[in-house]
Specification:
Elements (H helix, E strand, L loop, with lengths): L3 E5 L4 H12 L3 E6 L6 H12 L5 E4 L5 H7 L5 E4 L6 H6 L1 H21 L5 E7 L11 E4 L2 E4 L16 H21 L3 E6 L1 E3 L11 H11 L3 E4 L5 E6 H13 L1 H4 L3 E4 L6 E3 L4 H9 L5 E4 L8 E2 L4 H7 L7 H14 L5
Parallel strand pairs: 1-2, 1-4, 2-3, 4-5, 5-8, 8-12, 9-11, 10-14, 11-15
Antiparallel strand pairs: 6-7, 11-13
Helix pairs in contact: 1-2, 1-8, 3-5, 5-6, 7-12
Length: 341
């Protein structure tokens, strides 16, 4: 018997990939999205062309609309909350809007879940930004890349929270609310602190979705600017691996409800922003890529790597895509779909 999946931000990068998977296996899906992101209408058309306009229910609305959420999600069995304001830079310029979308919006979705008599599984896409700059953790340069001095597996879920930037504060507010709704109301909710997610149908821009942005820029001949020394390290998780984790959470909800889990590529899937990514991209492109250089940006961490051992243990999940295989898959997709950009 199929379940009713309610996906906020279902026309976004992560959402549309997950909706595709759900529709492919015959689930009932409601996409709740205000279609404000540039790629959302394109992703929606992709889903409709593939499965038909009536294959899923579309609600064009905002997570700031508590009344609409309560009505639209009232018979959902699973709620995956992906909608949000996603850029640190935007949050600095528009902190009130960022708060209303991420903090109040998440509260509204939680309330819709609490009022739903089915007690839906609730997955919240949080962020590694809740850990802030991790100033208490020493960082050293080794072999032309920045690394944690003494966290060989990356930052664990026990790393102290230090919400940095309005974005960090608003996402962190949602993070803690979702965790507490499991304790106070018995909602089967899980917080997933996601690292750098990348993959097809990511219409990245310079301030958000940097892996996709650099691939798109390289393929289409746009200017790439490297801020800082390019040795900054991030752990990368392919969106298909992320979607596998969502499925695992839902399947094992009795075991993981109320938990906070890091989801990223982990220590085995790290890459520097340019000193390592640049040569990979140039090899795929077959030519040298000229780049501009800029100063370090405020809040730009030299390192973030998520310790994903808790998720691996509790979910029986592990990333399948390596950095090399995942970047190549994204490069091939962008190259085959240049007209979208």
């Amino acid at each position: 018997m199929s379940r009713h999946y309610f996906i906020t931000g279902g026309a976004g990068f992560i959402g549309s990939n997950y909706v595709y998977r759900l529709l492919e296996r015959g689930e009932k899906v409601t996409v709740y999205d205000n279609l404000s992101r540039a790629g959302a209408p394109r992703n929606l058309k992709w889903l409709q062309d593939k499965f038909g306009e009536k294959a899923f229910n579309l609600v064009v609305a905002d997570v700031r609309d508590a009344g609409q959420l309560a009505v639209s999600a009232r018979d959902a069995d699973v709620i995956v909350h992906l909608a949000g304001q996603v850029a640190v830079t935007t949050s600095v310029v528009k902190p009130r809007e960022d708060f209303e979308i991420n903090a109040l919006g998440t509260f509204n979705v939680l309330e819709a879940a609490r009022l739903n008599e089915r007690k839906p599984v609730f997955i919240y896409a949080s962020t590694n930004k809740v850990y802030g700059g991790m100033e208490d953790v020493n960082v050293v340069e080794r072999g032309g890349r920045w690394e944690y001095e003494s966290l060989p597996f990356g930052a664990p879920e026990t790393q102290p929270l230090d919400f940095h930037s309005p974005y960090g504060c608003s996402k962190g507010t949602g993070d803690q609310y979702v965790r507490d709704y499991a304790r106070i109301y018995g909602l089967p909710s899980v917080v997933l602190r996601q690292s750098c997610i990348y993959g097809p149908r990511q219409f990245g821009v310079e301030d958000q979705g940097w892996v996709a942005w650099m691939v798109i820029a390289a393929v289409t001949g746009r200017q790439i600017t490297i801020y800082g020394d390019g040795k900054q390290i991030r752990d990368l998780l392919h969106v298909y691996d992320l979607n596998d984790a969502y499925d695992a959470v839902i399947e094992k909800i009795d075991k993981v409800k109320g938990q906070v889990l890091n989801l990223g590529g982990g220590a085995e899937n790290t890459m520097s922003i340019w000193t390592e990514f640049g040569p990979r991209l140039e090899k795929l492109l077959g030519r040298e890529i000229p780049v501009a250089r800029g100063d370090w940006r405020p809040g730009d961490q030299k390192v973030f790597v998520a310790d994903i051992r808790k998720a691996e243990k509790m979910l029986g999940w592990k990333p399948k895509y390596t950095v090399d295989s995942g970047v190549k898959q994204l490069f091939d997709w962008v190259s085959a779909n240049k007209t979208l950009f």
